[in-house]
Amino acid sequence: MLAPLSWLKEYVDIDVTPQELEDKLFSCGFEVEERYEVGKDISKVVVGYVKECEPIPDTHLHLCKVDAGEAGILQICCGADNVKAGGKYPLALIGATVYATAKDHVTIEGVMEIGQGKLRGYDSFGMLCSGVELGLNEDLYPGAGYNGLLVLPEDAPIGADVKPILGLDDQIYDIAITANRPDCQSIYGIAREVAAVLCKELKAPSLDFTPKDTMKDDFSVSVEATDLCPRYSAHYVYDVKIGPSPAWMRRRLALTGISSISNIVDITNYVLKEFGQPMHAFDYRFIEGNQICVRRAKEGEKIVTLDEKEFELNDQNLIICDGKKPVALAGIMGGLNSEIKDDTTEVMFEAAKFARDNIRKSSRALGQASDSSALYAKGVYEYTTVMAMKRALHLIEELGCGTVSASHFEQNTGNSVEPTEMKVSINKVNGVLGITVPNEDIVRILTNLNMAPVINGDELTLQIPAYREDMEDYPDVAEEVIRMYGYDHVKSTFMPTAQVTMGGLNLRQKSELKIKRALCAAGAYEGMHYSFFSPSDLDLLRLPENAKERNAIQLINPINIDLSLMRTTLAPEMLRAMAGNQKKGITEGRIFELGNIFIPKSLPLTEYPDERETICIGVFGKEENFFTIKGLGDVVADTLGVKFDYEAGTKTFLHPYQTAIVSCDGETVGYVGKVSYEVADELNMTVDSFVMELDLRVLSKYYGKPQVFVPISKFDEEKRDFAFVVDKNTTCAEVEKRIYAACDYVTSVTLFDVYEGSQLPDDKKSMAFSVVFTPRDEKLKGKKVEGFVETILNDLKENLGATLRA
Amino acid sequence: MKEKLQQIKEKAIAAIEATDGLEKLNDVRMAVLGKTGELTAVLKGMKDVAPEDRPKVGQLVNETREAIEALLEEKKVKFEEEALKKRYESEKIDVTMPSSKHTHGNLHPITQVKNQLTDIFGSMGFEVYEGTEIETDYYNFTALNTPQDHPARDMQDTFYLSPEFLLRTQTSAGQIHVMENQKPPIKIISPGKVFRSDDDATHSPMFSQMEGLVVDKGITLCDLKGMLDEFVQEVFGKGTTTRLRPSYFPFTEPSVEVDVSCFQCGGKGCKLCKGTGWIEVLGAGVVNKKVLEGCGIDTDIYSGFAFGIGVERIAMLKYGINNIKLLFESDMRVLKQIDD
Questions:
Q1: ipTM of predicted assembly, 2 dp
Q2: A34 among the known binding-site residues?
Q3: How far apart are CA A363 and CA A361, in angstroms?
Q4: Which residues in chain B touch residue A589, judged by CB atoms under 8 angstroms apart?
Q5: Domains in chain B, please, with CATH?
Q6: What is the tens place of the pLDDT at every residue in A666-686?
């Protein structure tokens, strides 16, 4: 929110520097996001007095002798049509900075530094300036809108800095207001805080006015939707003379970002900025049926707002109607049909409280917003409706632009505007803080905050002003006290009254970290991808219509379609991450991600979905192949103390002959395989890429598996190598399984060679294995091993038709 | 005989001196001392020597052999030394050439920061509770004193999955589950992914938070400050100090923003801290009485504090990562950099 220092000074005698004020605001909870001088880009511009002014023949220029005070008498060439001897104008000295304007002399094109110039052969030692060149307009300074020189007051001291004269030295504070303090969304609201933090008196704006005779006895105001409009007040003003508002009002509005329109409209905007209370002024002529009614719109009802946009409404939108038609979109914008015109003579003012949530939702749903709707969305209290109406009527009189009637209409089902009493325990207030704030400080602080504190023993009685709806209980009082007392009073203690607790990771968290670290040790890097993905990711995987992965939870309001589904598999983002690297010329890498997939139990969601921890591994590069990624799978298995089984299988996005389904103890836990050429092409992959996905939820049952020590045999192991000739489609796993099954002294079976070729029949291959026999209580004698070997050979012959290779 | 031995010896010495390597040296050894060697032949001829002369001749032969062997040994050692030297020389490398590819990966920067934080808080007695990414409106907002009409809901743009379910916007949602299921004393931290409808250079629609919650007898704002002081020194280094300033969160009252003294300039003012000497790192506060009461906790006995840390923010500050999006792209060049 923008707050000009000059306006704040209207209510508080601020005697600290602008920086000190910023620090004070910061310390009591109002962060100044930005503070700037109105004329921050303007420097070295002084009051110049034109002593002589001669036209330069055959040009529109004048050659002037300008008295610049200390800077001396300077020769200046000036092209403005209103330069004349005896006039005082802003003079930018050499080295000054002012705004550069386009050819139209209106559009600002940046900041320029003034140098010594030469026009038509005449030296010019500076520049006489227009209002625009100083960043001013007609609202900020009367006469500044003229397309020529800005005329300074006759009493402006020659050679003086123009900034204080033109108000360019004013400071603007852009203040962040937290959501609990809607009462501070206004200049007066901030001034209240400034007064409290500086221990200064707060000067209230004048609210008095003298109503003339009651005029409109037959007029009525009714509120049908009291839930959405707890307070509505209207007041009739007549003999209105539309015209410009005074300079002080225009300037203040301009400094807070509002352009002047006319006195009546400016009054509503001024009150909005001053008190944070949106107001509206209807042209009474166009209010039909002698009534105003606040109600929900009917389905399909239409309104055209002041900015000439038409809206079709429904019963979620609140409207202000006369006897026949909607005349305003409540809290958002007035209707075009009843706007203030140049010939308006009668006005009905409105000051109301509308439900914040309704205005917020309507504003969003209709895509229509205003300063007014922004304020309502943050919260407007009943309290300000009363003040604001009085203030507006006072301003009517002060500006002399109308006659205030005694016709006041009010519908009120909302909160009281009177203070409410609150009693709290001082011990509890201090108990929240952990320090004891002296009672006199508590009283001082709460007095400054207008809460009229009275202390009686441990009991603190407060009168909470109606604009502090956030004050509910002793913690709120504690916060008020400490933010004014100073957070630097808070000491560091380390929970002296707390009990000892055990901390750290649980078994699942430790196990997941162990798996991650093992994969890192195997050369893989951890990645992290979004929990949501795109419907196109499911198509990328070539998933059929009925695939379970397509049963994904949808976001109602995604940022875009590509982030619109909760992921049901980690694979697509891993594929895209690998492709992304390859696109950048990174042609090898190992990445893993441990994250959740989201499996709905019902759609739309009626209960928490299943969030399954899943691990996805991706490897790519010329050194990688099916078996290197399989090795990473085995790293996971080893970490858990289990063994994975791999069986040839298929996945719609993987190579038909280089894909395996992974299982553990007979239970499927995932898959692994080479990315299919179709998918690789679609993603413009340049190197072989492989992906693996494992369901950690299934594997979690192995977390914390007890580690058991197997004593080392004192007898030597026996190792034998065999080359078997088997059918070509016999798998390594089948042979391994038979060898283990045939002899329980076998502790390790390792394939070390495979041969297919001319030395064997076409349908055969040879597989060579190293088999280790581990002795138990006694040495394995040669004869016994020979017996094992024979058993194994017989078993393989019988079950797999295997023979020893000659 | 004596002359003959002298002759053998001199010939052998000359031959040994003439050798240029171990192989030749061995040839000489064989020619003199081998089965058919000259000196061996002399030994074999001992049977022809008169018995009374044998000791003397034997001694002479032995002396000769020892002399030759000593010389052979001396030469052998010399050749071995030379050979070793040559081998070393032949294996000379350019030590400035690149090292072999290291094959050790590392954890994601966010995981690294998360681990540091869980270590610190774990040692202070905090358990780690991980909630779900999908939450209900009740746990994410209502139970945290943020009812439907509450202004604070505007502070966060929420992704909804249904009227009731949403993607949690804050790990604070976990607070309520813990307090509903556990009686004080409670000390938990809750790290996890959170989601907000924000997508620009400094915002990512998904990021990570770590919520902390303590509920016990007599917990105060001073305890919050004390714990934070310990925490920031562990994370940002000894000598780092904290500054509390008033703020607003619906579920804490009073609420504070916590700044740390700038660890880059020590508080003098630099680019990182935008000249202020302070860096905003987290939000915190005394747990709102209404939140505790909503969970059935007796606020006449118990009180607590809570804090929420932006994990990406800590990672970006600590490691100088300039764009939050980089953390979610799995660019190997990014992933390889941070190994803390």
A1: 0.85
A2: no
A3: 5
A4: 332
A5: 2-90 (no CATH), 109-335 (3.30.930.10)
A6: 999 999 999 999 999 999 999
